[in-house]
Amino acid sequence: MHDEFLCHVTAYGVCAGRRIGVPLGTYRAPTLALALWWLRDRASWIAERLDPSPDDEAFPPGALVPVADTVADVPRLLRAWCADPDRQELVGDELAGGRLVRIAVSDETTEYELLAESVDALRMQRTIPALVLPVG
């Protein structure tokens, strides 16, 4: 029943005291396998941009340093999520069941959110009558 999935990646930060979301990508996956692949690919993409290889010739020696132990290591967390088959299976099961999946990791300035949901589940929610309450 859940054949298509809408996937989003967003970065959230604070600007002028307000929480601002910056879309980093959207994908309408025609299959569950492609939805999972895209989420892993985007998580890896974010991790690589936040934590590039120190051996990359684009960076002068000593330009990149490890984060302190007191700071959340977002790239490490994203890479661990990508490499964990049990977590991937759990996400797949949730999506196949029509449930929204949200994977979020944060450091001191930014929250990175990977979101996926069944297009069929979205359509079914729209057919449910909205709750309307009189005001005043």
Nearest-angstrom radius of gyration?
Answer: 18 Å
Q: Name the overall outline.
A: globular
Give the tally of β-strands: 4
H-E order: EEHHHEEH
Strand order of the largest sheet: 2-1-4-3
* Helix and strand composition category: alpha+beta
Q: What is the terminal-to-terminal distance? A: 42 Å
Question: What fraction strand?
Answer: 25-35%
- Pick out the low-confidence regions: 130-134
Provide mean pLDDT, rounded: 87
Number of helices: 4
Question: Could you give a short description of this structure?
Answer:
The protein has 136 residues and is of the alpha+beta class. Helix content is 37%, strand content 27%.
Give the helix/strand layout.
Layout: E1 5-15, E2 18-29, H1 32-50, H2 74-83, H3 85-96, E3 101-106, E4 111-118, H4 119-127
Antiparallel strand pairs: 1-2, 1-4, 3-4
Helix pairs in contact: 1-2
Structure description:
With 136 residues, the protein is α+β, with helices and mostly antiparallel strands. It is 37% helix and 27% strand. The chain is built from 4 helices and 4 strands, in the order ββαααββα. The protein has a 4-stranded antiparallel β-sheet. The termini are far apart. Residues 130-134 have low confidence and may be disordered.
